[in-house]
Amino acid sequence: SKLQKGFHEGLQNNKEIVDLRNRVEAFASQFAMPGFDTL
Question: Per UniProt, which keywords does this protein have (predicted)?
Fold first, then answer.
């Protein structure tokens, strides 16, 4: 939907959100996840 598209664009343009996502991904990558071994 149009609202969801705008929401996602806003997230990508928000430095704090991008930084948080990167930190979460870095943290999560320390743990094995079944079926997620393609990284």
Answer: Methyltransferase, Transferase
